[in-house]
Write a structure and sequence with these properties.
mainly alpha; ADP-ribosylglycohydrolase fold; about 60% helix; about 0% strand
Length: about 350
């Protein structure tokens, strides 16, 4: 039996991290402190110089929204994950202007254009078009990892199944070993977290295994230039273990590992922050929100994994209804539908 509170915790945790991190994205930690007066630990309307400018406090970005739509469509398909369903969800999400037009990253945007038959000819590359990757090496980004924690719920706690799900879904937009290693790390960690006997150590171990398998399987698509996700995860975990407190961990992870839109920075940072937070859901999310750079992406992945580990009770009770209202989404209904599928009630 998979506990309902873990399913809902993953969804609310992911949405919380994304919406809270939307206000701090792009800034360095020092700039976050200068603008907000210290670490951000509540929902703010994003400043006018961020990607999420114009959003209200508590509104999500591409990070959680694509995960939500994908999980919703898989639930509608009785929990069966296929490339066809994942593609349908991606195309549906691309038609939601408040999410796609404002937030979609260059890799996701270019691959959706390819699906629609509207992709520009890369042989006639226009430098002004930021959404045309030069080659596959430009696609080792966070778009594969950011959307996978809620989707990994359909594994029912089976780590290897979660890795298979991540490859099926994420290879549509990020078919390379770096991005897929990151996606599989998050998926495997989420799957492990769903189990009754899960603890932070097991979750981290599952993440390392997922990164290793994701790199192996991803290389069959394309082998990109770049550092190993698994090896950088080991460095990040060491930082999280040895830092004297969360402040030191955040600063060291930002400077040694990085927190950019690159999967081999952000995903390792996720695991370092979870370790530094000692598995506490909100402390981990706060770490992601305040590390700087791609804060919403990192915080949504931390929130999804730790929300699954600790359950929805580890998040402020008010977040569920607030996030549903601010984004016109149904987290509780989705969680109930996933629960029915996983526990044979559908």
């Amino acid at each position: 039996m998979i506990a309902y509170n873990k399913i809902l915790g993953c969804l609310v945790g992911g949405a919380t991290g994304d919406a809270m991190g939307a206000a701090t994205e792009i800034r360095s930690r020092k700039q976050i402190h200068e603008f907000f007066g210290g670490d951000v630990k509540k929902f703010y309307a994003p400043p006018k110089d961020t990607y999420a400018r114009g959003s209200k406090a508590g509104q999500i970005t591409d990070d959680f929204s694509v995960a939500y739509v994908t999980a919703r469509r898989i639930a509608d398909n009785k929990g069966v994950v296929t490339k066809a369903v994942a593609k349908k969800a991606l195309l549906e999400w691309s038609e939601v202007d408040k999410w796609f037009s404002r937030f979609a990253g260059p890799t996701t945007r270019a691959n959706i254009a390819k699906m629609k038959g509207t992709a520009p000819d890369v042989n006639k590359f226009d430098p002004a078009n930021l959404f045309t990757p030069v080659n596959m090496n430009a696609q080792s980004s966070n778009g594969a990892g950011m959307k996978i924690a809620p989707v990994a719920l359909f594994s029912g706690g089976d780590v290897d199944k979660a890795i298979k799900i991540a490859i099926t879904v994420a290879s549509l937009t990020h078919p390379n070993q770096i991005a897929l290693a990151g996606s599989c790390a998050v998926a495997a960690a989420t799957a492990c977290a769903m189990n009754d006997d899960a603890d932070l150590f097991k979750v981290v171990q599952a993440g390392l295994y997922g990164a290793r398998e994701g790199e192996r399987l991803g290389a069959k698509y394309h082998e990109n230039a770049g550092a190993s996700v698994e090896e950088r995860m080991k460095l990040a975990i060491w930082v999280g273990l040895t830092a004297k407190d969360m402040d030191e961990a955040i600063d060291k992870l930002g400077s040694l590992v990085g927190s950019s839109l690159a999967a081999n920075e952000a995903i390792p940072a996720v695991f370092g922050l979870m370790v530094a937070a000692k598995g506490d859901t909100m402390q981990g999310i706060y770490g992601g929100v305040n590390i700087g750079d791609d804060t919403d992406t990192i915080a949504t992945m931390v929130g999804g994994i730790l929300g699954a580990l600790n359950g929805v009770e580890s998040l402020p009770a008010k977040n569920l209804k607030f996030l549903e209202k601010q984004n016109d989404i149904e987290l509780e209904k989705l969680a109930k539908d996933i629960d029915k599928i996983l526990n044979g009630k559908a």
